[in-house]
Amino acid sequence: MTTIKPSKSTTIKPTKEYFGPFLPSFREHVHKLVHWGYEDALDKIQHPKNNQDKEETSITGFLAEAIEDQLDAFNPDDWCKCYSVYDDRAVNTDGRSGKYRSRADLVIKSNSEGGPQYVFEAKRLKKHKHTESDYTGSNGMGRFISGKYAIRYNEAGMLGYVQSNGLAEWKDRVIRRIDQDAEELNLINGSQRDKQVINAFPIEWMSKHNRNSLRPITLYHILLDCCVE
User: Fold this and answer.
1) SS3 annotation, the chain
2) Buried b (16+ CB within 10 A) or exposed e, 72-94
3) Dihedral angle, C-alpha 151, 156, 157, 158, nearest 10 °
4) Measuring CA to CA, which residue among 149, 39, 145 is closest to residue 91?
5) Quick one: angle between helices 56-72 and 24-45, nearest 10?
6) CA nearest 178: which of 147, 207, 144?
7) Backbone angles phi, psi at 179, to 5 degrees
8) What are the tens digits of pLDDT across the range 23-47?
9) Tens-digit pLDDT profile for residues 144-193
10) What predicted TM-score, i.e. pTM, was given to this entire model?
11) CA 208/CA 194 separation, integer angstroms
């Protein structure tokens, strides 16, 4: 992996290699947009009309569409005008080009200087089919820890689409898996802990991981109830 060295100007203005710590307000706004999108898309997410609606890409698409509708509509919160949302967005950090580029599940981008992006990887959580190992594996959390995603940032998010057994059970299962695979996940000792950013996500937690030749990354874990009614 190519080593990315922050330039001396990073304390003055953002660069393409390094942005710097996210402001708490940016993190909070992103969480609010995810919550609003989830609330507005819930009928589609939980609709049992066909199996396609249960797929990860479909759920992410419903979320992104609902968030975009919120951003396009009149909203008394002026900060909403400062963001854009993308799903299945191509990333350029793994040497691939064109249609072969990796694609981030959900990206919320600020229109402020430097254009910080909050990158989310989403995984389904369903007993016997989509387990916690999928969530923590190379195509889940591993995309951030390997430096494939969010290489410019020291923070990103994981979305767990819970389709059975409830949020609390899956939170416990994922936390145990992260602890079990701590060495493989480069987990920084003692970094996994509860972290409530907004009231709508009361069981959210965070974990911090070292990355080879890069700054450590903190992951915020949000679980969404996507059980089909």
Assistant:
1) CCCCCCCHHHHCCCCCCCCCCCCHHHHHHHHHHHHHHHHHHHHHHCCCCCHHHHCHHHHHHHHHHHHHHHHHCCCCCHHHHHEEEEEEEECCCCCCCHHHCCEEEEEEEECCCCCCEEEEEEEEEECCCECHHHHHCCCCCHHHHCCCCCCCCCEEEEEEEECCCCHHHHHHHHHHHHHHCCCCCCECCCCCEECCCCCCCCCCEEEEEEECCEEEEEEEEEEEECCCC
2) eeeeeeeebeebebbbebebebe
3) 30
4) 149
5) 120
6) 207
7) -65, -40
8) 999 999 999 999 999 999 999 888 7
9) 999 999 999 999 999 999 999 999 999 999 999 999 999 999 999 999 99
10) 0.86
11) 12
Q: Which of 37, 72, 59, 86 is nearest to 162 (CA)?
A: 59
- Which tokens in the block code for residue 8? 């001396």
Which two structure tokens, joined as six digits, stand for 197?
């950013």
Residue 98's Cβ-count burial label (10 Å; 0-12, 13-18, 19+) is exposed
Residue 178 one-letter amino acid: I
Average pLDDT, the chain: 85
The order of strands in the sheet holding 103-110 is: 83-90, 103-110, 117-125, 155-162, 214-225, 205-211, 193-194
Task: Give buried/exposed letters for 139-170 (b at 16+ CB in 10 A, else e).
Answer: ebbbbbbbbbbbbbbbbbbbbbbbbbeebeeb
Q: Which structure tokens are listed for 226?
A: 């996507």
d(CA 220, CA 196): 10
